[in-house]
Amino acid sequence: MSTAPHFDIDVPAFWQDPYPTLARMRKEAPIAFVPQLGSTLLCNRDDIFVSEKQIDVFSSHQPEGLMNKLMGHNMMRKDGDAHMNERKAIFPAISPKTVRSHWTAQFAGHATRILDELTPDGVVDFVQAFALPFSAECLKSITGLTNMRFQDMNAWSQGMIDGIANYVGDPAIEARCHAATSGIDAAIDDMVPRLRTTPDLSLLGVLLQTDMRMESVRANIKLAISGGQNEPRDAIAGTVWALLTHPDQLALAMSGAIPWLQAFEEYARWISPIGMSPRRIARPWTIRDVAFETNERVFLMFGSANRDEKHFDRPDAFDVRRDASKSIAFGAGPHFCAGAWASRAMVADVALPAIFDRLTNLRLIADKPPRIGGWAFRGLLDLPVTWDA
After folding, report:
1. Which is nearest to 300 in space by CA: 109, 86, 43, 57?
2. What is the tens place of the pLDDT at every residue in 133-192?
């Protein structure tokens, strides 16, 4: 165990709103062991920005970690050459060039079809009506698992992210995660013969043309699903909510005074959809007066780093006019999110402009505020809205 001071948290309250606790930790104990989570948390942006790049100390290789046990050994839980080799293998499917030339048009097609089917029939939960199916349909295309329903894509993604954040060891959550991974394996098995015969630019199509072992192919497809559904889903719904509650900032985006990408990047800073990334201490290490021992578990708290007062003025405020370039919502080191370009295209290039162009006078429901929760993964649970027909 590290020599970091102990800091107790109220886990349900932390799930409801982690930011007051994280602000206290940045002030009182920016590196602290939290007994309720069984981990030492790094909360300052500078500590995280430096430590994430020190893979010889803060290792992503976690043989006993929840992700390895539940989803298989994917590239996110590998370091050095092992990580880079698999990252290079998937790159042709999600490179900036492929996103621009291939995926963005498909994303636009999904958005148009889903928006065409929407009607403002009283109160509409925008998470369920658009953000969820749009994110899932895009992810079906990217992964190559076009044989599954968008409802399954979402449910299985949620099952996995709940499982890998199940630090309290709830057996029901673990069982749902196992059911999700079994469903994905079956979908992969169904698509493999087709994509071996007729390869495409999907992740599965690209990986089947490499010498990657099938168990690693499966693990990396599950990785893409675990992060590739909830992050765009939550960012779309969340950015819509943030802009609707800040109409002056929405006007800036709709007029073109600020790009939609800037609104998305500010939301990703303000409410980090992926708020934490775990690491294993690979060798004894000291940060200032805190000494770490080998094999300790450390949480890099991105959600805290993105509200660090040393780097962001009024960090608890959503402001599309700010410079959010120091945000580490997508990570900061060699594990920088490989799907970042696809995510930006889905949310900023396609979803946000289409939503506000197509849904006239889109507005919140005054007596039905949205619910939001999570700390390792955080997002809106619902978004009640309506608009003019």
Report:
1. 43
2. 999 999 999 999 999 999 999 999 999 988 988 878 899 999 999 999 999 999 999 999
Q: Give the single-character DSSP code of 147.
A: T
Burial (CB < 10 A; 0-12, 13-18, 19+), residue 99, is buried
Q: List phi, psi (to 5°) of 165.
A: -105, 15
Res. 41 pLDDT band, cuts 50 70 90? very high
- The residue whose two tokens read 């997002």 is 379
* DSSP string across 296-333: -EEEE-HHHHTT-TTT-SSTTS--TTS--TT--TT-SS
Count of residues in the chain = 389
Phi-psi region of 153 (alpha: psi -120 to 50; beta: other; left: phi over 0): alpha
Q: Residue 48 contacts by C-beta under 8 Å, 6 or more apart in sequence?
A: 42, 300, 301, 302, 305, 328, 332
Q: Are 145 and 136 in contact (CB under 8 A)?
A: no
* CB 278, CB 272: distance < 8 Å: no
Q: What is the Cα–Cα distance from 305 to 326, expressed in whole angstroms? A: 9
- CB-based contacts of 35, cutoff 8 Å, min separation 6: 6, 8
> If we measure between CA atoms, which residue out of 48, 108, 82, 153 comes closest to residue 357?
108
Tell how strand 379-380 and strand 39-42 pair up.
unpaired
Whole-Å CA distances, 84 to 80, 88, 205, 282: 6, 6, 19, 19
pTM over 0.85: yes
Q: From the centroid of its chain, how far is CA 82?
A: 23
Q: List the one residue out of 381, 352, 380, 386 whose CA is nearest residue 367.
A: 386
As beta bridge partners, residue 286 has 291
